[in-house]
């Protein structure tokens, strides 16, 4: 194959269905296989602020052989969905896609680009390091099997738990103790899925002050946590016990929990276990970056 046969084009210029098929093919043998439909892809792209006109499709003839997405929020960007279909790997296509995305980021004047890479994915990690990305922190994918008994709520008169509309709770997340959320669970992403979420609030029984928030979604036998924040571990335990008690048969998961999240000990004590870990990597001063590597 001649290198010039591969052309990098804006993802907005290729058929959406073909792009999604290529995404599924690129992740078919990944640590976590992905299968998306055009509809679920569109929902994901909206939620994660993806700009398809700035994203990349590596094309050979009429075949899409690689791809990468660029999300934009203000002066910050996020790269996701990076992949090359198995039969075209090892030919530098991934680097070409990354260079394309970084050039688009520079044109947009972005100051910081972030991405996640599974810690075991050494080839991808080395590629990102060679492009100047640095590890910021480790993010954990947590799960809890339904066979575990749900924990009892702490017997405390200082914790009152009740259901509440997520739209009334989201503003408190920034006020409660915590760490910066990953791109997929930032406030901008949560606000786009509020209609699919349920909420619990923890209140001080005397003053009525809100001391904790839990946002979650359910489908069939799955419980997905979107955020858990509280002023103390005791409050976090009460929130978590309440939501697990509502869905005792559900398998629970929580995506990209920071290794220094103050609620992580509470989650571990409730039976959540690490099933996967990722490095969150950042490239700062993107607009100032000059890169004349051959691609």
- Give the tally of structural domains: 2
Query: What is the assigned CATH homologous superfamily of the largest domain?
Result: Gcn5-related N-acetyltransferase (GNAT)
Radius of gyration: 21 Å
Q: Order of strands in the sheet with the most strands?
A: 1-2-3-4-5-12-6-11-10-9-8-7
Descriptive labels:
295 residues; alpha+beta; Aminopeptidase; 2 domains; 24% helix; disordered C terminus
How is this structure best described in words?
The structure is a single chain. This protein has 295 residues and is of the alpha+beta class. It folds into 2 domains: 3-110, Gcn5-related N-acetyltransferase (GNAT) (Aminopeptidase); 141-277, Gcn5-related N-acetyltransferase (GNAT) (Aminopeptidase), CATH 3.40.630.30. It is built from 7 helices and 12 strands. A 12-stranded mixed beta sheet has the order 1-2-3-4-5-12-6-11-10-9-8-7. It is elongated, with a radius of gyration of 21 Å. The two termini are 15 Å apart.
Summarize the structure.
With 295 residues, this protein is an alpha+beta fold. The protein is built from seven helices and twelve strands.
Describe the protein's topology.
Elements: E1 6-10, H1 16-26, H2 38-47, E2 56-60, E3 63-73, E4 76-84, H3 93-107, E5 112-118, H4 122-130, E6 134-144, E7 160-163, H5 187-191, E8 198-203, E9 210-219, E10 222-230, H6 233-246, E11 251-258, H7 264-269, E12 273-284
């Amino acid at each position: 194959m001649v290198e010039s046969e591969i052309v990098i084009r804006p993802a907005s210029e290729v058929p959406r269905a073909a792009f999604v098929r290529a995404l599924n093919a690129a992740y078919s043998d990944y640590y976590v296989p992905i299968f998306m439909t055009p509809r679920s892809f569109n929902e994901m792209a909206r939620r994660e602020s993806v700009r398809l006109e700035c994203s990349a499709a590596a094309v050979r003839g009429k075949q899409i052989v690689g791809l990468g997405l660029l999300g934009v929020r203000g002066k910050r960007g996020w790269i996701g969905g990076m992949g090359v279909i198995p039969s075209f790997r090892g030919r530098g296509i991934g680097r070409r896609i990354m260079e394309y995305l970084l050039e688009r980021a520079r044109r947009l004047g972005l100051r910081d680009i972030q991405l996640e890479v599974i810690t075991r994915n050494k080839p991808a990690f080395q590629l990102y390091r060679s492009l100047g990305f640095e590890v910021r922190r480790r993010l954990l994918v947590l799960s809890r099997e339904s066979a575990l008994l749900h924990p009892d709520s702490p017997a405390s008169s200082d914790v009152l738990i009740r259901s509440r509309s997520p739209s009334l709770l989201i503003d408190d997340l920034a006020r409660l103790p915590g760490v910066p959320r990953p791109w997929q669970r930032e406030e901008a992403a949560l606000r786009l899925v509020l209609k699919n979420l349920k909420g619990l609030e923890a209140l001080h029984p005397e003053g009525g002050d809100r001391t904790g928030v839990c946002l979650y979604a359910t489908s069939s036998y799955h419980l997905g946590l979107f955020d858990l924040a509280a002023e103390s571990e005791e409050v976090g335990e009460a929130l978590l016990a309440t939501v697990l008690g509502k869905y005792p048969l559900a398998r629970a998961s929580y995506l990209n929990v920071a290794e220094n999240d103050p609620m992580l000990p509470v989650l571990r004590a409730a039976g959540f276990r690490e099933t996967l870990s990722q490095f969150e990597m950042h490239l700062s001063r993107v607009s100032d970056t000059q890169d004349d590597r051959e691609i």
